[in-house]
Design a protein that fits this description.
This protein is α/β, with parallel strands linked by helices. It is built from eight helices and twelve strands. It has helices at about 15-20, 45-55, 60-65, 75-90, 90-100, 130-135, 220-230, 235-245; strands at about 5, 30, 55, 105, 110-115, 140-145, 150-155, 160-165, 175, 185, 200-205, 210-220. Strand 11 and strand 12 (about 210-220) form a beta hairpin. Helix 7 runs antiparallel to helix 8 (about 235-245). It is globular. Bound molecules: zinc ion.
């Protein structure tokens, strides 16, 4: 079984569609590490797709915030505006689905998915130092997380932790062969709002039988997603940043 690993889609339908086209034929099941909505202008379309297509998902902080499960005081102003806009835009069925999403970590057939860290779904795991401290709390050799919108993650061995990275500009895939005696905390990157300087939608393909994780990037119509954000009256910043990948 090969898995399409997605995270941080953020109601960006154009990016999601491009990923599904780019990944066609490379996977059998789809899982998501959270943040279906927030920031982007297509929450209903993305949630309806998720309800029909995902084999497993954990909730993200924006999924919680958009259905009234979080105190929005912790959000910056544009994220708060987007959460309130999203809550008003969502259909009752889609609100209900988001409200019921499980908190990670979640076991998904031999590996785990989580949004932030195994200890705190809202924690940003950015440094090798913090990743190393989380190893005792991971229940499988391979775990997928999101939240930081940075493609890569960490490879953890007894004597050290090393950051992992996705393909360089100009390349659209990079295969990482998984090694024994190693714990992997893999971030597929963000589909709908990458923040690693590469505006292309990010995702990963996990093949447990082959023992590989493939990091991938797919170009998409950023201009269309931006126009929808502006037309919806969402903060301009949320459209601007998509072109820069920050
Ligand atoms: Zn996110």
């Amino acid at each position: 079984m090969r898995y399409l690993i997605l995270s941080d889609i953020h109601a960006n339908w154009e990016a999601l569609e491009a990923v599904l086209r780019h990944a066609a034929g490379a996977y059998e099941q789809i899982v998501c590490c959270g943040d279906l909505v927030g920031y982007g202008a297509d929450p209903n379309r993305v949630v309806e797709w998720a309800r029909a297509e995902l084999a497993a998902i954990v909730r993200g902080n924006h999924d919680k915030a958009s259905v009234g499960l979080t105190d929005l005081e912790w959000f910056n102003p544009s994220a708060r505006d987007a959460a309130l806009w999203t809550e008003a835009a969502l259909t009752p069925e889609n609100l209900h689905y988001l409200r019921g999403l499980p908190q990670g970590p979640l076991s998904a057939g031999g590996f785990q998915i989580l949004h932030g860290s195994p200890l705190d779904e809202d924690e940003y795991v950015v440094t090798a130092f913090s990743a190393g401290h989380l190893v005792p709390y991971l229940e499988s050799a391979v775990s997928f997380f999101g939240h930081t919108h940075l493609q890569g993650g960490f490879l953890c061995r007894r004597h050290g932790v090393r950051p992992l990275a996705g393909p360089l500009d100009g390349e659209d895939r990079l295969v990482t062969a998984l090694e024994p005696e190693t714990v992997y905390l893999v971030n597929p990157g963000s589909v709908g709002q990458p923040r690693d300087g590469d505006p292309r939608a990010a995702y990963a393909i996990y093949d447990p039988d082959a023992g590989t994780v493939e990091y991938r990037r797919a170009a998409y119509s950023v201009g269309v997603a931006q126009a929808k954000i502006r037309r919806a009256g969402l903060p301009d910043l949320l459209a601007d940043r998509l072109a820069l990948g920050v």
